[in-house]
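Input:
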Amino acid sequence: MEKIDASFFPAEREAELDVVGTSVQRADARGHVTGRTQFYEDVSFPGMLHLKMVRSTRHHALISNLDVAPAMQVPGVVRVLTHKDVPNNWYTILKLIGVEPDDEPVLPEDRVLFMGEQICAVLAETPQAALEGARRVVVDYEDLPAVFDVEEAMTSTPFKKQGTNYFVYEGHNCRRIRFGDVDKAFAEADHIIEHRYESSPIEHAPTETSGCIAKPEGNGRVTVYSNTQALYFTLDNMALILGVPFNKLRLVGGTVGGGFGGKVDVMVEPIAALGAMLTNRPVKYAYSRAEEMQVSSPRAAERIYIKDGVMKDGRIVARKVTLYVDAGAYCRHSTYGTTKAAAHMPGPYTIPNVHVDAYCVYTNRTPSSAMRGFGVTIGDFALESQMDQVARFLGMDPMQLRLINAYRDGDMKAHRKKVEGAALVEVIQAAAKQTGHSLPPQFASMSSLKQEAGHGQA
Amino acid sequence: MARLKGRGVAAVNYPTGMNLGGDPSQALVHATTTGSFVITLSSVDLGQGIKTVAAQICAETLGVPYDTVMVDTADTDTGPHCMGTFASRGTHRIGNAVIMAAREAREVLMSIAATELEVDAGDLVTDGKGRIHVNGAPDKGIAVLDVALAAHFKHGKTISGRGIFLKPKSEVVPETGEMDPDSCQAHACTVAEVEVDDETGEVAVVKMTNAYEIGRAVNPALAHQQIVGGAWMGISHALYETTEPYYPDRSHGPLDFSEYLMPGPGDLAEMDSVIIERPASNGPYGAKGIGEMTANSPIPAIANAIFDACGVRVTSTPITPEKILRGLDALRGQTN
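Output:
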């Protein structure tokens, strides 16, 4: 089934290896297909409580009153957790890599910024009792104006207690790339080709929804069985929120029914562990499918404008990218993803003049966060649709247009890192070969290894 | 009424490792007295196969059979730190940490084998089948198990090693965006072939041809499965999926798989994929990350194929039948 074409880069491939490069059967395949693999939900403990969240039904509102007493009347309900129970009520996933400000409470104090935001947690003997308890909690809201469009949000009244509707990158309202002089190059270009691209939020849709079981141990520690994608990252953030030393926590996991970036947000573990610490009982918090789809962070919607200065021969001499990442109500990992999006521009092409403004924008929707191809997937949809539009405009073969502009070893990227290990030319050649698409000799003989005169020059 | 055929191309690159670096992972390797080696990690397998790939890399470096390497993960009380499974970093980061640990263990292994055989360690080779012998003299050798037993019971030595990989964190220059974001870049080109039904606006992806350059395919079958699985995700992203169908309006958000559209088995395309290899200087046996990138080139390749088929350029995803029909109406000079 798998094919390796060793005719490319023959001088760089290592001599034969014994195990690396062979298709041994994956270690966990038999366990998965026979139902014997143990996932976090396959452990269960006597006396385990179930946690269900009360969630905002409003896009943006003040909480004028929160009455949890009716939930406590439900048989089986043991406790309701509110913001007052959370030792350090800031959700801090990027704090460990120095990203400020804290913008998201673990449980909100006086307002909700998106529909589905968690408000308080009901702990009960059974999932049914927890759901019934959550249903009976009374939340009174005073609605506030909500903003849903990224470009509107840039200029509308800030909706958070502090700060702007966009993340501030060292004094700038966006992550910037500045390389060459796009305005000068646009003036000298034969054609200007400008288009807008957009995506909508996308769910990770894992087989296994996000969840964990937190179990208090006799020695004062808490063990958390979790399907997180990152055990220590989860442990560290939990310790900050719970106000306990790192070594009071133990995370166990390692086998996950699909992640795709949806299990790095550390949403379920801190609150489950808090419940376990306050009740001295094991607590399970697992997202329902509806929560996974509408409450867990999706892939961000993006809006991307690309303006290209193009010469008649197919050279792209300038590219200006204005990119909006819809972070939703809170930043989570979006500030990181927006910088990654900026670093990816202008795609795998050597363009001598590049200008990128990448905005991380807050709106009153479910916060977005990491997903497979974070910061890049939607950028590639825009970039490669744009390349096709340029090729069509010029009446040029789309593979040839890409080969003319492809980056190669020694070129300078827009973020000023020199290209090494390039192979864009070769994957295009390989795809041409596979599909029987014949390339003229000057394109068939191109290589990422050597620089040709004039390449990369305006 | 016709089914219009079209073909579209897209080519992409994708960075390996957490953006800007600063994402370490450790591995510990030790020999047991059963003839096996254990790699201890705190790394998570999401289904991508890190447990398999780590064991392959360890077996390669130690020179022992793959099925004598066990992976112990993931428990923070026993496993050393791993930043996590994301950013196409697992094979690269953990693979490098495993090589470093396995090299240290191999050095002890060979030195004890040399003592037992009364030869110079430099003259010894592993046969990859569980024996160590003098180079060119397969009969003058010793089983790896016997070396492990001798180390423990006779010499009082552990056959073990420690490994870590860290690309130190790079900072961004705020004015210009100058930065060192990645360890290496993998590459892909997809050619999508589609049929567009000009009456219903429905798109069938008939075939996807993919060429990937991923440094070195540590396990070609697993790499191939990433390509196929990612291409399915790409079809799904391009044509079906969203949690907000009327974005930026928040209404009609799906709550389950009967409302959240994804392709079914009958919607999946024929696949023809090839891998080419340009080893990365900093990758384990040259490997780059392939985990995330495999949905990326399929999406624009499909969008471009749809334009090729019917002349409608849809610049927002998902590319629904409604958008295509509106585009076809506009081409025909009608407005709805």
